[in-house]
Amino acid sequence: MADAPITQDVMTIPRKLPDGPQNLVGLTRAAMRDALIAAGTPEKQAKMRVGQIWQWIYQWGVRDFEAMTNLSKAYRAELAEKFVIEVPEVVTRQVSTDGTRKYLVRIAGGHEVEVVYIPETDRGTLCISSQVGCTLTCSFCHTGTQKLVRNLTPAEIIGQVMVARDDLGEWPEQGAPKNEVRLLSNIVLMGMGEPLYNFEGVRDAMKIAMDPEGIQLSRRRITLSTSGVVPEIARTAQEIGCQLAVSFHATTDEVRDKLVPINKRWNIEALLDALRAYPKASNSERITFEYVMLKGVNDTDEDARRLVKLIEGIPAKINLIPFNEWPGAPYERSSNNRIRAFADIIYKAGYATPIRTPRGEDIMAACGQLKSATERARKSRKQIEAELGR
Ligand code: SF4
Known about the structure:
Elements: H1 8-11, E1 22-23, H2 29-38, H3 43-58, H4 73-82, E2 83-84, E3 89-95, E4 101-106, E5 112-119, E6 124-127, E7 131-132, E8 150-151, H5 154-168, E9 186-189, H6 199-210, E10 222-226, H7 233-239, E11 243-247, H8 253-259, H9 268-276, E12 287-293, H10 301-310, E13 316-322, H11 336-348, H12 381-387
Parallel strand pairs: 1-2, 6-9, 9-10, 10-11, 11-12, 12-13
Antiparallel strand pairs: 3-4, 4-5, 5-6, 7-8
The structure holds iron/sulfur cluster (SF4).
């Protein structure tokens, strides 16, 4: 396949800038312990120090060592000399009329990624990015027109959660009773990039999000969406343990090759085999099949019946996504009647088929609309249309 996936190592900047203080954000507990010992913390104290610093950073949202009052003044000064607690800078913050918030955040190298917060009555979901641009070129996705610049580091991934909590004022007061109602209760890895092409970065960041002494998000409230990087699917269950969603979007290889080009590498059959074997899938933890509704492309009744046949035996739910237009997009959204008729066929076959309500369209925050100016458009409308044989 022409745009063969790029391995992570090439595209990730090192965590320790050679001549600067080290950022503690994004380090696993083991890596933080090693860093503290390397900086002079006595080995037998290191585990305890990690516990203390971890809580300040991820439970209380503290970014200043001076405020870490259960550490001696001398040790705080030592830490401040050798380490920093840095999160991405918020460049712009837009709030939609429907309450959706979109943040453009700047990371090392001056690159920018988008993060979207979607408030709902019973939850608050943060849609985070894992790459600047994307390794892949799904033709319905705005990010897919943005060339991959690099993978995000764990600090830049968990940092998106931290800046959103800052904006929502969600860091608890020390000593205050635990607030059971969380404004940011769910994370979806559905922003910019293919998370499974940044496996280690995403894994380490989600482990931090799930850590019981920090942000404490349950693995059942974290959903990773992949376009179908088959070799990494089982590993997601083993090493992250979160919920899985798959960008499915078509019921024939011919159409999926065009919509989700990674299908040329691992086709529908290979993908479904991996999902059937997904260790975490069960009736209470169903795999979400994401299906963007594109007028005249993948929305016939026959497509709906074929989809039901294909996913037989997989604990699944189907999320229908009315296509969200973006400048230069070569598709149109299916009509509401068509989407409802499609949903009806799947629902009658016994599957929950929620139709995703487009959120934040007025600020280009809806699914598939994310793109940062970090890189020029990769493919023009003419090129995408030529590829579609139009
Ligand atoms: S849908 Fe996901 S994998 Fe495909 S181009 Fe967009 S961000 Fe990348």
